[in-house]
Specification:
11 helices, 2 domains, binds manganese (II) ion, binds phosphoenolpyruvate, 15 strands, TIM Barrel, alpha/beta
């Protein structure tokens, strides 16, 4: 059960609620949302009636929350979360298209990628500087010099950037250079990292773990919101199944399910999902049709020479051919491309 306080409830009124919660043998726990402040009842609430708390001054409503996630829940916040990243609105009607290489490889490669993203109508550029590679002998990313390249190119093009952070200690460093912090699939349940990005002022894109259930993903997002950071994007990027002809299986049904249970924006990474450039377009179009709020697509000026994920990277030509198709599909479901 949670007690949702009125927007202007005073600290004294909140303390009355906490006292009333203690009086029935439960423990109060405050969670401060972007728009609302709620006090959870931890303990046995089955015998309690909402009316017991509803009449306390400052209380807006009392809800029984069946599910373990709270701040991310649409029950608690019915309106979609909408926020700005530079000049880009995330979570609104406009579907946000992010593209760029898997890894930042050089200034020239990243600059060429970003210009191609911009020319085709993409609104943000992606690039990895710290790469979670399956093999320790694969290219691990340029590290901080890669972040510097991203910042320079972002200033040249005006495109905000997104890049992965793998370690809690590196969150302030990555946040210095990059507009959106990506928590990768392999780190979805790295709780110290979730706590660290929860304290950052930068928006976070949380990717679904390779074998994570939707509820586990929502609970991982709950850590970030509970830490104080409410600007979170959820990203479905394909899950492990028995199928091997695609790299992962894009769980397109995760889009309507997530949209039902959470107010957070939902993006799709079609590239990690399908693993082959030739399927990225279909997966992108299907995702927008199913209600995705954005896409993050791997695009490389020369996929054959890419230092990571070249097989699944589309060319700038393919990307610019995809954009008008995405616009048409977005229009068919009463959305636009941001
Ligand atoms: C990536 O974006 O390049 C990446 C490694 O993604 P994921 O964490 O979804 O595998
Ligand atoms: Mn990749």
């Amino acid at each position: 059960m949670v007690v949702v306080m009125k927007a202007h409830a005073t600290e004294e009124q909140k303390e009355h609620v906490r006292e009333a919660i203690r009086a029935v043998g439960c423990t109060p726990r405050d969670i401060q949302g972007a728009e609302i402040s709620i006090i959870c009842l931890i303990g046995e609430t089955r015998g309690l009636q909402p009316e017991q708390f509803e009449m306390i001054p400052g209380v807006d409503q009392v809800q029984r929350i069946q599910r373990p996630f709270k701040l991310v829940s649409r029950e608690v916040q019915p309106n979609n979360t909408v926020f700005e990243v530079g000049n880009v609105t995330v979570g609104g009607n406009g579907v946000v298209i992010i593209a760029g290489p898997c890894s930042v490889e050089s200034l020239d490669q990243f600059r060429e990628s970003a210009h191609a993203v911009k020319a085709a109508g993409g609104r943000m550029v992606r690039g990895g500087a710290f790469k979670p590679r399956t093999s320790p002998y694969s290219f691990q990313g340029l590290g901080e010099p890669g972040l510097k390249i991203m910042k320079q190119v972002s200033e040249e093009t005006g495109l905000p950037t997104i890049s992965e952070v793998m370690e809690p200690e590196l969150v302030p460093l990555v946040a210095d250079y990059i507009d959106v912090l990506q928590v990768g699939a392999r780190n979805m349940q790295n709780y110290p990292l979730l706590n660290a990005v929860g304290k950052s002022h930068r928006p976070v894109m949380l990717k679904r773990g390779l074998s994570a259930k939707i509820e586990e993903m929502l609970l991982a997002a709950e850590y970030i919101l509970a830490g104080g950071n409410h600007n979170v994007i959820l990203c479905e990027r394909g899950i492990r199944t028995f199928e091997t002809w695609t790299r992962n299986t894009l769980d397109i049904s995760a889009i309507p399910v997530l949209k039902k249970f959470t107010h957070l924006p939902v993006f799709i990474d079609p590239s990690q999902a399908v693993g082959h450039a030739e399927y990225v377009g279909s997966a992108s179009l299907g995702s927008v049709a199913a209600g995705a709020d954005g896409l993050i697509i791997e695009m490389h000026p020369n996929p054959e020479k890419a230092l990571s994920d070249g097989d699944q990277s589309i060319t700038p030509t393919a990307f610019s051919a995809l954009m008008p198709q995405l616009r048409a599909v977005a229009g068919a479901v009463n959305r636009s491309i941001a």
